[in-house]
Amino acid sequence: MNINLEYYRVFFYVAKTRSMSRAAEILMISQPAISRSIKKLEDELKCQLFERLSRGVKMTAEGEILYNHVYAAFEKLTTGEKKIRRLAKHESGLLSIGSSETNLTIYLMPKINEFRKLYPHISIRFFSGTKNELFENVQKGILELAIVPSPLNNLGSLQAKEVCWIQDIFIAGNEYKNLKGKILTINDIINLPFVGARYDTGVHQAAEDYFQKYGNEFEPEFNVQTVSQVLTFVKAGMAIGVVPEKIAAEFINDGTIFKLQLQEPLTPRRLFIIYNENILQSAARMEFIKFLLCDKSSQF
User: Exposed site from 107, 123, 139, 181, fewest CB < 10 Å?
Assistant: First the structure.
């Protein structure tokens, strides 16, 4: 389309008000400028759009047809402007976030709850997945951001900011009460049955790193999908497990399970927020990242 869009804006207000002088007042330009714009538009379209009357103007049949289309276009533009202003004020928006179910429970869910209190009109779309899935979806722009544990390898165009760190612990059920209160070494637990979460979870990696540090392999007798399933096996007295301390706290407090006291505790894991710097940031994403980074010293 080669016609100046400003001509259509002038046409819209002249047609809407049926008056060139009134359109000039609204657009804050001179009436001669309004007349010139209408004349140029008519010349471009090769038809007359208005009949000049003693008072105001009247649209021709061609003018009526054009107005119906221009009106629809201006309505959409106005709606778009309103949405953009609401987004800029954080009065609306959609934020797509990913993490593991464990990190959702112990870190992300409380943060989303606090964020929504500040910005109740921003909708959240959550995706649960493995670390590799989250990386891939952020890279492709399917997710705006994700929460993932260390270590971070091959970030590429992704940006990563540390938001907190998580302390994992060894836990046992009352079947192993003979271990309660004792200071234990790796040799005290190496031959006990273990239950492990899926190999690509952060907590499994933490257990694996701990065992390898002492020249051993973490080879659990029971392999499950989630941390909640690890807890189920431990509460049943079937095995020793490794879980984030925050998730175990409720069951430690009620005496269902207990924390094993290791001479050297597990190394804390770091959690990061990742996002693709090559994809244009929405106002909601920028605000959520700032919100998380304001309290990045948290331990869980």
Answer: 181
pLDDT tens digits, 216-228: 999 999 999 999 9
Nearest Cα residue to 15 out of 47, 40, 45, 38: 38
Walk me through the domains of the chain, giving residue ranges and CATH numbers. 5-88 (1.10.10.10), 93-166+270-299 (3.40.190.10), 168-267 (3.40.190.290)
pTM reported for the whole predicted model: 0.65
Phi (first) and psi of residue 129, to 5 degrees: -165, 175
